[in-house]
């Protein structure tokens, strides 16, 4: 009886919808971040500390330093 009930529960009620190429492209495009989510890309990031110090000194601005130890995603 239980295998019969499991088979009924797992039987789809309708055929799965097939996605067209345009549907797949739309779904992929929806995953990409929009302009409002990429504001951090507009920051003038510097990788060279000495160049950043010189630029900050020339413009009389502070330096924001992002430092970390370990794996970038926290998987240590």
Question: How would you summarize what this structure contains?
Answer:
41% of the residues lie in helices and 0% in strands.
What features would you describe in this structure?
- There is one protein chain.
- The chain has 76 residues and is mostly helical.
- Helix content is 41%, strand content 0%.
- The chain is built from 3 helices and no strands.
- The model has no long low-confidence stretch (mean pLDDT 81).
Average pLDDT reading: 81
Shape: elongated
N-end to C-end Cα span: 48 Å
Q: From the helix content, strand content and strand pairing, which structural class follows? A: mainly alpha
Largest sheet: none
Secondary structure layout:
Layout: H1 2-10, H2 21-31, H3 49-59
Essential attributes:
3 helices, 76 residues
């Amino acid at each position: 009886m239980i295998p019969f009930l499991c088979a009924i529960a797992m039987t789809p009620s309708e055929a799965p919808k097939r996605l067209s190429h345009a549907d797949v492209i739309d779904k992929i495009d929806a995953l990409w971040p929009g302009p409002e989510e990429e504001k951090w890309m507009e920051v003038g990031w510097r990788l060279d500390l000495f160049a950043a110090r010189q630029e900050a000194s020339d413009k009389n601005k502070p330096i924001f330093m992002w430092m970390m130890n370990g794996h970038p995603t926290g998987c240590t």
